[in-house]
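Structural prep section.
Before we set up the soaks we want a predicted structure of the protein with pyridoxal-5'-phosphate in place, mainly to decide which crystallisation condition to try first. Input record follows.
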Amino acid sequence: EEMLEIWEELSLGYTESRGHPKLIQEISGLYPGIPSSGPESPIVLAPQEGVFLAMQSLLQPGDRVVAMWPGYQSLYEVARSMGCKVDFWKPRLDEAGVPAHFDVKDLGELLLSGPAAKLVVVNFPHNPTGFLPSAAEFHEVVELCRSQGAYLFSDEMYRGLELSPNDRLPTAVEMYDRAVSLGGVSKGLSLPGLRIGWLASASRPFLDRVAELKDYTTICSAAPSEILAIIALRGRDAIFDMNRQIILGNLNALHSFFDDYPDRFAWQPPRAGTVCFPRLLGPAAEAGAAEYCERLREKHGILLLPSGTYEYDEPCFRLGYGRRNLKENLSLWRTALDAGSS
Ligand SMILES: Cc1ncc(COP(=O)(O)O)c(C=O)c1O
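Run finished without errors. Recording the tokens verbatim:
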């Protein structure tokens, strides 16, 4: 009822630059220890805007950044475009050549092997591999950053979509005063069209700078979106559960699909999120992921994202399994495979 009243009184004027106070209150509830109002509370912005403004706030040309790769492009490309030196934390491959595991030891070696990093960028649950570290491994990542004095940008957009809710990680800002957590309603709450996300951090200078820079991007968020985001966040447990059911059903279908074509594909079942990153085998692998994906799109209307989009050389593709129509698309794909046309 409270929300109905707010919705009916909705005015389409400018909104508060840092976000609707009730929305900020709802968001701060996700981060123990983070205040629900005032200059140390989270800032509301579009998720992609959050990546951009965080990098602009934290980095200077020449700074060293260590980022997971392959990954969501802006998580390393914005820093690169600012003249930073970006080194990649790469996954270890399994015996079939599928990116399987980001080993914290490799991050540690990378951090010790060059000048001090200003920023470490992680994304758990990870797009595109579906990788999720254990809480102990995440803690080690934080300790590595602490030992180097590096900031940690933690993209937590897929948080809430763990296949097993017990696997949900603490947020980075709960663990480290130089951490920035990016969250939003686009993935776990399936509302990307609202363009609502947020940055939370215990670093007041960081938040002040983001708030200043936001005056040069969107100034404030869209009034109707803010109200809809409050409603969604208040119902988040039910929405996460609904989405988890869809994902678990789709993953069962994916397991039987990949079981049926062991000489065509290899994969690592994801632990969270809505995407995974299988690998082509056999002749399709030799022709390359770009050609395979293009043929599948053109002939059968099935959309996969080839690994070249990530500048990643292995013949992999990103497969989204978050939509309700996955099973129909898998049967189209099966027909194509069985007819020898894909
Ligand atoms: C890991 C990750 N971070 C950030 C974003 C940006 O979210 P949005 O498109 O809602 O701005 C995405 C979107 O795909 C993403 O996958």
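Observations: The two ends are 53 Å apart (CA to CA).
Flagged for discussion at group meeting.
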